[in-house]
TrEMBL record, chain A:
<keyword id="KW-1133">Transmembrane helix</keyword>
<keyword id="KW-1003">Cell membrane</keyword>
<feature type="transmembrane region" description="Helical">
    <location>
        <begin position="96"/>
        <end position="119"/>
    </location>
</feature>
<keyword id="KW-0812">Transmembrane</keyword>
<feature type="transmembrane region" description="Helical">
    <location>
        <begin position="12"/>
        <end position="35"/>
    </location>
</feature>
<keyword id="KW-0813">Transport</keyword>
<feature type="transmembrane region" description="Helical">
    <location>
        <begin position="225"/>
        <end position="247"/>
    </location>
</feature>
<dbReference type="InterPro" id="IPR001851">
    <property type="entry name" value="ABC_transp_permease"/>
</dbReference>
<feature type="transmembrane region" description="Helical">
    <location>
        <begin position="254"/>
        <end position="277"/>
    </location>
</feature>
Automatic annotation (TrEMBL), chain C:
<keyword id="KW-1133">Transmembrane helix</keyword>
<dbReference type="Pfam" id="PF02653">
    <property type="entry name" value="BPD_transp_2"/>
</dbReference>
<feature type="transmembrane region" description="Helical">
    <location>
        <begin position="241"/>
        <end position="270"/>
    </location>
</feature>
<feature type="transmembrane region" description="Helical">
    <location>
        <begin position="59"/>
        <end position="78"/>
    </location>
</feature>
<feature type="transmembrane region" description="Helical">
    <location>
        <begin position="282"/>
        <end position="301"/>
    </location>
</feature>
<feature type="transmembrane region" description="Helical">
    <location>
        <begin position="33"/>
        <end position="52"/>
    </location>
</feature>
<keyword id="KW-0812">Transmembrane</keyword>
<feature type="transmembrane region" description="Helical">
    <location>
        <begin position="110"/>
        <end position="129"/>
    </location>
</feature>
<dbReference type="InterPro" id="IPR043428">
    <property type="entry name" value="LivM-like"/>
</dbReference>
């Protein structure tokens, strides 16, 4: 029983990280129908920038995170306005290819800039052991889970209760009608992309403090984020959270009871099964036109 | 006296050769992972090689010509390494190859080397069967996992008083090989196997794996991992409060690993073919030059690259020409003085005569706890 | 139609003449890689260009073909002329199975589920040690006995002609498919699924045909790869291979038969040229992809065809049906 609890807690912790990192993707995927393959690279940039501001610029973690958030939001905005805007009307494929090209470029340029070594980010809280009954975890992890929850809540409030959020939801439901209602949809798209980018980057920095920031991590992160988004349903917050937790726990259980070598496979099997049996995910907020 | 007589001729030759410098270099090809998950260690290897070449060129080069390194990125992948080797041999017309780091990549380029009759040396690849393939152009200036484990299994079992060991390895040919070898030799020394687990390159969260290890009641953990994965694993071992002894193979005891793992690295044992704290004059000179050039202490891979190139350059010098067969013959009769002992080759191309060390990381430096040397295999 | 066929013939003839003119082994090696990518790109083009869906899992079939050939060669001692058709067959079967599941989905869902399949296969290949030797891979795939005594140059020439044969075979099959009823139906589905259904075309069955044919050709290429490189490891399933394939199809122009050939040529040469740039190489690649998507969305062939279309309009002569068909193929 102890073992099960430990696996469960491990899974919930990593699951909440997955949820945060997938949140940005589900917004972009759900609202803009752009399959953003560069998502993992935004995450990676968050980690690398986080290392830069905390180590080279000497900022503490929280202020560093704010700086990174601002920088990545601006970056996301520019990417949308300069690149994605131009292929928006051409269907999904150009978006996919564009973001693939972008991800290759970002990953390798970062490699050139900082090299291959894992980068350390000083967390805001020490990494001390915390024992919850039979379960072991660390202070930093619990703190990060709390930050994840806060960020998710913040994003939710943004989308539900601000004008920008309403504009996003309107554009999500029907872009043409939104435009007719006077919403500047280009700005909404850019803002959504910037938000997605920032969420990814912040989760990258957060997790970078727990593990380490590495340049090559983008591909796997993108894939896991896609798994969560598909499981949870495009565009759904609740879906991203639940999907993330399910993936985290599934991986922990599979790794714990079956084999740690094959852990990644569970995510892909989940995707395949979901797409066969419930293609719109657990919580789709939009009925899929054929 | 003789030198003085030859001086003007020598000067004229040197002058002439420096005037047409570009065509006169001897090219040696490197196939190493410059990108990918072992890129960090691959770059260290390349750095060691570059240092060796720089030192040699400063001392006049080989056969009166400068050595030029042509470096290709094999990415530790067999297909890419084959492409890189083909390019180096066909296009750059190198006279010898050093590579390809990972045993599977090296295994892939060995037939290429044989087909083109190109001497190939590896300073790193440790899979035992590479020297069993009968490829007479291939030389391995490194230890194999089998040799490491045979040398240290008894010592580890006794010194660390091991009873129940859990084995963890990265899920590739090297990690699996290391786990197999060590578990076999330690079991022969009476140590029980608590668990055997593997993880993928690039795993960041080891909690599930470590939970299983904790439940297995092992009193020590054996790890076969490289810097990137190993440092994270070790940090998480300490985070979770696992009080087991940790020992392993791979790029432990290197400066970058110690720096990344931080305080979590203290107390870890490593079985390594090289440590910067080995005490002999050759090593002290090497450590001084390497740290001056690269701002960090050399580790296993820097040393490997350094040795591989020196062995190649020595062989070319002794061969007296860049003819492949002559270089090959010269390689077979190598007797090279390295920072970690002497290197000689068996007729299968396996190196022997150099030292291995069991180090423990204390105060951020690898202190040599015990050493052994690889004797000529029967 | 005629123009395309003539272009294809010209390409094949030129390629056939290459080894007679060029003696440099490295250039022949490049030529072999160009042909290899041409076959791969043609197979991917069938799915992307003629089904109209973006498959990111095409490496699955390449990998299956490669592993089939390697396993048959190493465990059963089969020679190359037996393993290649077997590789194609097994890939086709997998294509049938995977297509049955994935072709029911469209758009981004199709993209991700195909990717998921490729990843699952990679993880299986990496972990099923008994069959695939895991990360250690299968080395020493048997070379044809013919080559044992020959020189290295002869070996390269031999493989070049085998690759050429495979390319010819692939182009022929693709050509026959595209200009058959099945092919035209697939194009109709691509252009407008509902209209196609309204005239009685079942999208699923035609998509299946293109998909399985694509899988078969990719498997054939994979089998060739196994023998030529003589080493097969789980990295054949990785995304980076997929990216190269995508770029080749993109650069050349999807939905055309000549496009993949041009793409293969350009991309292989570009990779070689960029080798000098080493670490910068991949960054530049990424930029090139972005640039192509923004400025040359239909690839080179698409660009050229569009120019011809425009010139056709300017000359005001009614375009012959054959030319119009070609123009639309390029769309």
């Amino acid at each position: 029983m102890d073992l099960f609890l430990q696996f469960l807690v491990n899974g919930l912790v990593t699951g909440s990280f997955y949820a945060l990192s997938a949140l940005g993707l589900t917004l972009i995927f759900g609202l803009m129908r752009v399959v953003n393959f560069a998502h993992g690279e935004f995450y990676m940039l968050g980690g690398v920038l986080g290392w830069f501001v905390t180590t080279r610029l000497g900022l503490d973690f929280i202020s560093g995170m704010l700086v990174v958030a601002a920088a990545m939001a601006a970056f996301g905005w520019l990417v949308d306005r300069l690149l994605i805007e131009r292929v928006r009307d051409q269907g999904e494929e150009p978006g996919i290819l564009l973001t693939i090209g972008l991800s290759i470029f970002l990953a390798n340029s970062a490699l050139l800039a900082v090299g291959t070594a894992p980068l350390k980010i000083e967390g805001p809280v020490a990494n001390k052991l915390v024992l919850l009954g039979p379960v072991a975890t660390t202070q930093l992890r619990l703190f990060s889970v709390a930050v994840c929850a806060l960020l998710i809540l913040g994003a939710h409030l943004l989308v539900r209760h601000t004008r920008l959020g309403r504009a996003m939801r309107a554009t999500f439901q029907d872009p043409m009608a939104a435009r007719l209602a006077g919403i500047k949809t280009e700005r909404v798209y850019a803002a959504t992309f910037a938000l997605g980018c920032t969420l990814a980057a912040m989760s990258g920095m957060l997790l970078g403090s727990i593990y380490s920031a590495q340049v090559g991590v983008g591909g796997l992160i993108s894939l896991k984020a896609f798994v969560v988004v598909i499981l949870g349903g495009m565009g759904s917050f609740a879906g991203a959270i639940l999907g993330g937790l399910i993936l985290g726990v599934a991986e922990a259980m599979w790794g714990g009871y079956i084999s740690t070598g094959l852990v990644d496979i569970i995510g892909f099997i989940i995707v395949i099964l979901t797409l066969i049996f419930r293609p719109y995910g657990l919580f789709s907020t939009r009925s899929e036109r054929a | 006296m003789r030198h003085l007589r030859h001086a003007p001729v020598l000067a004229a030759v040197l002058f002439a050769s420096s005037a047409i410098h570009a065509q006169e270099t001897i090219k040696i090809g490197l196939v190493q992972p410059l990108t990918g998950s072992v890129a960090y260690n691959g770059n260290a290897d390349v750095n060691g090689s570059k240092l060796a070449v720089e030192e040699r060129n400063k001392a006049g080069g080989v056969l009166g010509r400068k050595i030029e390194l042509v470096i290709e990125d094999g990415q530790c992948k067999p297909a890419n390494s084959v492409n890189a080797a083909e390019k180096l041999i066909q296009k750059d017309k190198v006279v010898a190859l050093s590579g390809a780091f990972c045993s599977s990549a090296t295994a892939a380029i060995m037939p290429v080397a044989e087909r083109y009759k190109m001497p190939l040396i590896t300073g790193v690849s440790s899979k035992a069967d590479l020297t069993e393939k009968g490829n007479k152009y291939f030389f391995r200036a490194a230890e194999t996992d089998a040799l490491l484990s045979r040398a240290f299994a008894k010592i580890l079992a006794n010194d660390l008083k091991l009873k129940n060991v859990a084995y963890v390895g990265v899920n590739d040919d090297w990690g699996r090989g290391g786990v197999e070898e060590f578990s076999r030799d330690l079991s022969a020394a009476g140590v029980k196997t608590a668990a055997k687990e593997y993880f993928d390159h690039g795993t960041t969260d080891f909690y599930t794996l470590l939970t299983k290890l904790r439940a297995s009641n092992a009193d020590a953990i054996f790890v076969a991992a490289e810097t990137q994965d190993g440092s994270i694993l070790v940090k998480q071992i300490k985070e979770l409060g696992l009080k087991t002894k940790v020992f392993g193979v791979g790029s432990w005891a290197t400066a970058d690993f110690i720096q990344l793992a931080g305080p979590a690295a203290e107390g870890i044992y490593a079985a390594v073919p090289y440590a910067s704290t080995m005490t002999n004059p050759r090593n002290q000179a090497f450590v001084k030059n390497y740290s001056a050039r690269y701002n960090e202490q050399p580790g296993k891979y820097g040393n490997a690259g350094y040795n591989a190139l020196n062995i190649l350059m020595d062989a070319i010098q002794r061969a007296g020409s860049t003819d492949a067969e002559k270089i090959r013959t010269a390689l077979a009769s190598t007797d090279y003085d390295a920072p970690n002992g002497k290197y000689r080759f068996t007729d299968k191309g396996q190196a022997y005569g150099f030292s291995l060390a069991l180090v423990q990381i204390q105060d951020k430096t690898p202190k040599v706890v015990s050493s052994a040397s690889i004797d000529e295999p029967k | 139609m005629k123009l395309e066929r003539n272009l294809l013939f010209a390409f094949l003839l030129l390629a056939a003449a290459l080894p007679l003119v060029v003696g440099d082994q490295y250039l022949l090696h490049l030529g072999i890689m160009v042909l290899f990518y041409a076959v791969l790109a043609t197979s991917l083009n069938l799915v992307v260009g003629y089904v109209g869906e973006f498959s990111l899992g095409h490496t699955a079939f390449l990998g299956i073909g490669a592993y089939t050939a390697a396993i048959c060669s190493l465990k059963f001692g089969m020679p190359m002329w037996a393993t290649l058709p077997l590789a194609a067959l097994v890939s086709a079967l997998f294509g049938l199975a995977i297509g049955a599941i994935t072709l029911r989905l469209q758009g981004p869902y199709f993209v991700i589920v195909t990717l998921a399949f490729a990843e699952v296969l990679r993880l299986i290949a990496n972990n099923w040690i008994d069959l695939t030797n895991g990360p250690m891979g299968l080395a020493g795939v048997l070379q044809p006995r013919l080559l044992a005594d020959g020189s290295n140059l002869f070996g390269k020439q031999f493989y070049f002609y085998v690759a050429l044969g495979l390319a010819a075979c692939a182009l022929y099959l693709a050509y026959r498919f595209v200009y058959s009823n099945a092919g035209r139906a697939a194009v109709t589905v691509r252009e407008n699924r509902y209209v196609a259904q309204s005239v009685g075309i079942r999208p699923f069955s035609y998509a299946m045909r293109a998909f399985v044919l694509g899988a078969m050709l990719a498997g054939l290429a994979g089998g060739f790869y196994a023998h030529y490189i003589s080493f097969v490891g789980p990295e054949v399933f990785t995304f980076s291979f997929m990216i190269t394939m995508i770029i080749v199809v993109l650069v050349g122009g999807k939905g055309t038969l000549v496009g993949p050939l041009i793409g293969a040529l350009l991309v292989t040469l570009l990779e070689e040229y960029l080798r000098e740039a080493k670490e910068l190489r991949l960054s530049i690649f990424g930029l090139i992809v972005v640039a192509i998507v923004l400025f040359l969305p239909r690839g080179l062939m698409g660009f050229l065809t569009a120019r011809r279309e425009r010139r056709g309009e300017i000359s005001a002569a009614p375009a012959a049906p054959a030319d119009v068909a070609v123009a639309r193929e390029g769309a």
